[in-house]
Design a protein that fits this description.
The chain is of the alpha/beta class and 534 residues long. The chain has helices at 14-25, 42-45, 66-70, 81-94, 184-193, 220-227, 230-236, 257-269, 274-277, 287-305, 308-314, 334-337, 385-388, 400-406, 438-459, 468-482, 513-525; strands at 3-10, 30-33, 101-102, 107-113, 118-123, 128-136, 158-161, 176-180, 199-204, 211-212, 330-331, 343-347, 353-357, 360-363, 368-370, 373-376, 391-393, 422-424, 464-466, 531-533. The relative contact order is 0.14.
């Protein structure tokens, strides 16, 4: 028998927890469904060695409740996964959220009934729900690309994706370990396990610009400092360009070369993402400015590596891509890991991995690297992947999977034309798809969804869907904004180019978090212009 509810939320991460709390407070009957055995979202799934924040801990928090904020104390500026997971449990227990979530349950199918205006949702455990609203809080980086190389199933050792790392961990001491990929995740793994493994082979295709992390411990004084800023942060974070506490304050053309260098040195020394997110916004639009900043970062990296061969493999070249047009990782002695005798960087840019053999990794030229463990830090089908992996059918037989296979389109990144009463967070064409401190953007999106549902309740409406014209207008605005940036001209997961056959579009809204928030509010204030309600 179908369970009748008002709203079903898919996912128990940052967005799902807060969305459930809000809708329950509105008096709706709400059910959360989570594939994992416990809550936490990305901080449940990503428990690989070295997983940690690269947003400052005191801004990666909910800001709707001052006591909730202040009654938790972080141990350091950029805590690791175990502490973050404990924080999420604290939030869930404080708000009594567990009772309304079903765990170890995956939503497999959802069909919209045009006559009733409701969704029929099926799960892999046999539970079915008849729900008015279906809300996907499935995460922007939660559809791992696991089957990447021929022969993976034949490998005699342990092979896994970082986002499926076992809770109990893996014994790596004395093992021959291979890490495939040097994005943000791969970097955290490499710098963490290098001292403990017997041999570490790192397979490098696309080198990354990296910034050194400074991660001081927090005592009572530091905790008192950031907790005293609650009102300040609550007011400022939602209105900055990226949802962080810092913002762009300098204009390239207004400064002399010496002044520019001083700014770059200062933000580099901060040990955060400040060089990327608060130095010079021109790096995203002006190729010459981007190259000067890129050269600055390349010099910093080369000075640490010293070895010309390592520099050639691990430092991006001017012709590759510019600093800031890819995701920028923070690291702690990542480059120094390659100076260890037990670590080898293997370039697979021009000699790619051909297949996985029972004994290890074979490259195109026949070279074989014998391994006991293979850790694949090979990325995700970002933004659209998690929802597209569910069989979601909207009006007139339209499936979300097929629609996004043709073109990555949404309205505000919160709804999709043809799929009434389906809301989304962390989806394409919103800042939360990539370019945002995630808690800032996910709070804003879930609050917008809650306000929208409240408006429907007050006005006696039961169904909402973007109009075709409304969606066209948002996609057009998104593209005009994105195509003015160098991000749109760079191959990365930001544009979906890491997934074969995925339509190319900048996944994240690039107009800024504060601007996006204002546009969302303007649409709501105009009676949800661009949406049709009945």
């Amino acid at each position: 028998m179908n369970k009748m509810i008002d709203a079903l939320i898919i996912g128990a991460g940052v967005a799902g927890l807060y969305q459930l709390h809000q809708l329950r407070r509105e008096g709706l009957t709400v059910q959360g469904v989570e594939a994992g055995s416990d809550l936490g979202g990305t901080w449940y799934w990503n428990r690989y060695p070295g997983a940690k924040f690269d947003s400052e801990s005191y801004i990666y928090q909910y800001l709707f409740d001052e006591d909730l904020y202040k009654d938790w104390t972080w141990s350091e500026r950029f805590p690791g996964q175990p502490e973050i997971e404990r924080w999420m449990h604290y939030v869930a227990d404080r708000l009594d959220l567990r009772k309304d979530f079903t765990f170890s349950t995956r939503v497999t199918k959802a069909d919209f009934n045009g006559e009733t205006g409701r969704w029929l949702v099926e799960t892999d455990t046999g539970e079915t729900y008849d729900t008015r609203f279906l809300i996907g809080c499935t995460g922007m980086l939660s559809a791992p690309l696991e089957d990447r190389f021929p022969g993976q199933a034949r490998f005699k050792g342990t092979i896994l994706h970082t986002a499926r790392y076992p809770k109990e961990g893996i014994a790596l001491e004395g093992k021959r370990v291979g890490v495939i990929g040097v994005g943000a995740t791969g970097i955290q793994v490499i710098q963490t396990i290098a001292p403990e493994v017997a041999e570490l082979k790192v397979f490098v295709r696309t080198p990354q610009y990296v910034l050194p992390m400074k991660n001081p411990k927090y005592g009572p004084g530091e905790a008192a400092w950031y907790k005293s800023r609650f009102e300040e942060l609550k007011g400022s974070l939602p209105n900055t360009f990226t949802g962080f506490e810092y913002d762009f304050e300098n204009t390239w053309a207004d400064l002399s070369p010496e002044e520019r260098l001083a700014v770059l040195e200062d933000v580099h020394a901060d040990g955060s993402l400040k060089l990327w997110l608060a130095s010079f916004a021109e790096m995203f639009f002006d190729a010459e400015v981007c190259e000067e900043i890129s050269a600055f970062v390349r010099e910093k990296m080369a000075a640490r590596l010293k070895d010309p061969k390592l520099i050639d493999i691990l430092v991006p070249k001017a012709e590759d891509y510019g600093f800031g047009t890819h995701r920028v990782p923070l690291e702690t002695n990542y480059l120094e890991a390659y100076l260890r005798d037990n670590v080898e960087a293997v370039s697979v840019r021009h000699n790619p991995i051909k297949e996985i053999l029972p004994e290890g990794v074979m490259l195109e030229d026949g070279t074989v690297y014998a391994l006991d463990v293979i850790i694949m830090a090979v990325g995700f089908d970002a933004g659209s992947g998690a929802l597209a992996r569910i069989d979601i059918t909207g009006r007139q037989g339209m499936t979300l999977r097929d629609e996004w296979a043709k073109d990555i389109r949404t309205t505000l990144g919160v709804q999709k034309y043809g799929f009434p009463n389906l809301f989304m967070t962390g989806a394409p064409l919103a800042p939360s798809a990539a370019l945002c401190n995630m808690t800032t953007c996910l709070q804003q999106q879930t609050e917008w969804i809650t306000d929208c549902i409240r408006h429907m309740e007050k006005t006696g409406k039961s169904v909402i869907e973007p109009t075709a014209e409304g969606e066209d207008a948002w996609v057009r605005h998104h593209d005009e904004t994105a195509n003015a940036t160098l991000i749109s001209k760079t191959n990365s997961w930001y544009t979906g180019s890491n997934v074969a056959g995925k339509p190319r579009r900048v996944l994240s809204y690039t107009g800024g978090v504060g601007t996006y928030r204002k546009k969302c509010q303007e649409i709501a204030d105009a009676g949800y212009s661009g949406f049709a309600m009945r």
